[in-house]
Amino acid sequence: MSTRLSKGGRLIDRSKVQNFTFNGTAMRGYQGDTLAAALLANDQMLVGRSFKYHRPRGIVGSGPEEPNALVNLGRAGRSEPNQRATTTELFDGLECASQNHWPSLNYDVGVINNTLARFLPGGFYYKTFMYPRAAWKHLFEPIIRASAGLGKPPQEPDADRYEQAYAFCDVLIIGGGIAGLQAALIAGTAGLRVILLEQNAHWGGRAPVDGDVVDGMPAAEWVAKALQDLDKMTNVTLRNRCTGAGVYDHGYVLADEKVADHTPGDGRPKHRLWRIRAGQILTATGAIERPLSFAGNDIPGVMLAASTRDFVVNFAVSPGDRTVIVTNNDDAYRTAIALHEAGLSVPCIVDARSTVTGDLPLRAKALGLRIATGMGIAKVSGGKRVTKVALCMQAGEGAVIEEIACEAVAMSGGWSPVVHLWSHCGGKLTWDTTHAHFRPDATRPPTGADGAAMVVALGAANGAMTAADAMVDAANGTQLALKALGFDAKPKIVSSAAPVQEAEMEPVWIMPYGAGVKLKSKMWLDYQNDVKVSDVQLAAREGYSSVEHTKRYTTLGMATDQGKLSNINGLAILADARNAEIPQVGTTTFRPPYTPVTLGALAGESRGEIFQPLRMTPMHAWHQTQGAYFEPVGLWRRPYTFPRGGETHAQSVAREVNNTRNALGLLDASTLGKIIVKGPDAGRFLDMLYTGVMSSLPIGKCRYGLMCSEQGFLSDDGVVARIDDETWLCHTTSGGADRIHAWMEDWLQCEWWDWQVYTANITEQLAQVAVVGPNARKLLEKMGGMDVSKETLPFMQWADGTLGGFAVRVYRISFSGELSYEIAVAASEGAAFWAALHAAGAELGAMPYGTEALHIMRAEKGFIMIGDETDGTIIPQDLNLGWAISKKKADFLGKRGQERTYLASEDRWKLAGFETLDGSVIPDGSYILAPGLNANGQGNTQGRVTSTYFSPTLGRGIAMGLIKGGLARMGDVVDFNTLSGAPIKAKVVDPVFYDKDGEKQNV
Amino acid sequence: MLILECPYCGVKACETELSPGYEAHLKRFGPGSTDAEFEDYMFARKNPKGVHFERWRHTYGCGKWFLAARDTNTLEVFGTYPAQSSAPPEDLQAKIKAKRPDWKGYK
Amino acid sequence: MSNAVSALGNVSYNGFAQISEIGPIGMISLRAKPDVKGLDKAIKAAVGTKVPAARQMEGAQERFAGWMSPDEYLLVMPYADTGAAMAAIDKALKGQHYLAAVVSDARAVFRVTGEKADQVLAKLSPVDFANLGAQELRRTRAAQVAAAFWRDDSGYTLVCFRSVATYMMGLLSHSAMTGSEL
User: Fold this and answer.
1) What is the rounded distance in angstroms from the CA atom of residue A458 to the CA atom of residue A372?
2) Rounded to the nearest 10 degrees, what angle do helices A567-578 and A533-541 cross at?
3) Does B20 contact A at CB distance below 8 Å?
4) Using one digit for the tens of pLDDT, what is the confidence trace for A804-823?
5) Would you call C162 and A618 a contact, using CB atoms and an 8 Å cutoff?
6) From the candidates A248, A250, A254, which should be mutated to test the interface with B, based on the most B CB atoms within 10 A?
7) Is the ipTM of this complex over 0.90?
8) Which of A803, A832, A963, C63 has its CB 3.0 to 4.6 Å from that of A943, i.e. a possible disulfide?
9) pLDDT digit string (tens) for A316-329?
């Protein structure tokens, strides 16, 4: 069994006990433990089930490479699936549970898939899609959906908060091992702005565990001193618990800081996503050990050799009394020595190489440890944990020579540099035959904005596999980066590590070399996704020779660990099956993030009240106190209606329409776009922008105008007022102000830059109120201060003045067909003015109305609405707005576009009004049916509805829509489709349903 | 995530402070132009792997449009210059030619 | 009698930095090219400063001028003074091509103060605060909206559009929460 040792553990504090639970069972650990260490200390070797076969899974690694030990952490608002136990810091009160099993971790029904493994080969998912066709939907999908999957998504809103932050530096170093610290010391001493990131809570990386010596000091001592020195440099920022997640264009790096994962509920943000811009990026991200492919290499108790060492040295956790080491390199001997020094038994070091000569094997030998050279593991026995291993000759087919009882197996297949960050933004790799791994190719680096290298890999991440080499490489690489930044000074202080002579490793991709199918179908490559050596070989046989295809076909490397352990081993198997060299096969693409980043961190502050910027008018608070129901209009929130008492929205909208038509309605129209256009060429400019003529508009008057895109499609509309000789005020739609202002600036800056025109978007400077209805003039007269009579202020004119003491500009315009004034007042006074109008208007029947009443009243008058009658494919002529298009002008934006034959065709659908025969309301989105079928066998159409409402004024359904033939179809009865199937019959009519002669608005 | 220096205010702007405006140096064709000319102006956009000239607006900054020469493959930025330019500056063209001898010119 | 009120009624929040909405403050957007005759006089008459250089501010306390773009300046003054300033600008620039508009009411203004005020903004804006000039007027975005800010001895003044004042207050408060110091 795995246990806690009585002594040691460089990262744990035995005086601080941390209580936690796993699947409801109470356990104890120490401060400084990872969850994985604490689970092993409590003999919890079995931690989960694999994705496909539900095989028992134990802890394999000790860091972000871990494929198996994924747990659901926390509960309710702090429930998080798929958390790696190896990188989760233990804290008191932690609750976690294993995943992907039913009914329990120990007795999992899904394990039946394991016995059916023969029928679930590589490419299984794709095969189920293919044949028989019906089987996917009725047989395979329900079964796969029920049995597959890892953690469950949380059901409650996240109880924590997240944030983002921007940072800038000359040199960003990712990885706080000895190479990263060396780089930080050099760059920091040179006076550059440095940020150093470390994913773990502790610094120093592997060196302290591996027993390296730096500058004559034990690595841990040197690390502590380096941190002290760096702390004193104000130009250096150190951040631990912060993972460099992705490298992007132009020196942009995302880093995920786990601020409070280990102190949940302390009020700090859980994670902080750093958005860093760096001049040079140094990746000192180390290397990851590779598993060996032998039968039964997935049984709980089989671990990576260096991870085994981590557990012993860092956390004083024993994986079992007897650990068999299996390796193809010298590094694993460090584990043997560490286990031995901790008082544990290492029955045998199985080395696939025929001879061993390095310093470390010699030390092992001197300690009396048995080394079996030229041998491999034929098979590991055990169910939920290892019970014994069978040895064989590595060169053979797996004939068992000897069996050794043990509780754990520590394996090492060599090391792969963590090249992810180097590769994210285009850095290329080269195959290193000495170490049998891909490492960064310094001649083909990721390049930045200036076309020069922006990333330098350091130390083990660059293929410098010993501490001594890594320190030299880190110093050289840092100097290179400094040079790129314009610093050519030689580093003042360079630390070095004591060399340890290591013999060459020997690539071993299958153990034993001549293993047959039976053994190969028990050799796991991808532990989480259940991909075996035999699956990759099958994929190759079935023609999936590209590495990217094999990956998707077998799902190799597609699990949450993204193949950190399985990639190279899988590539080697594929290369062998194709009879190709590994570099010819190449790697799959490394994409960010390096380790998963939670969605909360990516969203940052953008949730709840500040999910997005909601725009509010100066009267918003008043609307809220009146119980307004709001609707989004762009990012604005506008009152849709103001329900009173127990009114439904339909009832309150009808009341608002009737009250406005019969007495007095007040509309908050502040969102209306308002753009000043001024200059000697302003008139000429507006004539280009609008389809009509604005230059001829007399001062003091208003004119309705349309704007089109260059393609000719209607883009916005509004009333333009001429303010003075050189100044016009253009009203745009509520959602269109910023877009139209940008459109104006685009043409002024990029096309007609010699024209003398300035624009100013003053939309938010003014609150605007529409005072509408038969009593509108009475209200303004009661407010007093200016003459608003028919004679002084006729329809389509404006005037400046005061009303009730407020400085105002009054426009006599109407979007409802009623007597109507739109009154602009400084936004800071908007709320007061609105309140004053309501107070004075009470005796005149004043009521606020919302956007729905506005829409109904404009539809009753046959006025179009941008976004309802238009959708980006409609030209003004389609909407019978030819009268607003100048025939005289030689040019305006959209004129040439509208001349295209397709847009000039008589066959286009054109605007008309519709009245249902039974008075009902045509559903939104309804089409007008036409006889016959189209080429796809669908029913033909001849038009569609664009606006449809119940008209409280007329007491019936009214609609506007587009129909082939347009108003020429007047009197025809057509069918509108409905979801229920029975079409609604409607008569084509004039779209002006109400007060055709405009008698009401012109009083 | 690009950084482009706004030639008007000198801010080295992050891409999130900018709005893209697609191909630069288009000639507008209005009334009187042929169908082919209008089609070319409206729809036919270059999409080179390599040197490309683009419009960008410093939307969250000074609000001005500017033009940028950029390699769409490596994202190397050769330079930025004001939108009020009917052709890329001579020195910029020379710089690009030196870095990309195969470049055929901006037209 | 003025009924003018700022967007949020001068709310405030105390975290590791202090946030307060201030105003209303008088502002005029003046669009003119720097070589326009009378521009120096117009700005002098409106706020008493010289024409600011690119990205810079001139003046201090209640009255100053800021460079917004190659042909736009922001003139800041007490709220009640914009009428007189507009008249002075119109007089100085008569006959020239320019556009002056009062924008006091289109804006919301915030003060972010305290030793770590820059950290509040560093969470929202892609700006290198170590290289922000003492007299620099920086236009950028804060999270999802446009903003402009400048610093002084006790912190920063930030200006955004009035309609998003509630959003901005939410952003600044969230960023300034105690315990979230960078």
Assistant:
1) 35
2) 40
3) no
4) 999 999 999 999 999 999 99
5) yes
6) A250
7) yes
8) A963
9) 999 999 999 999 99
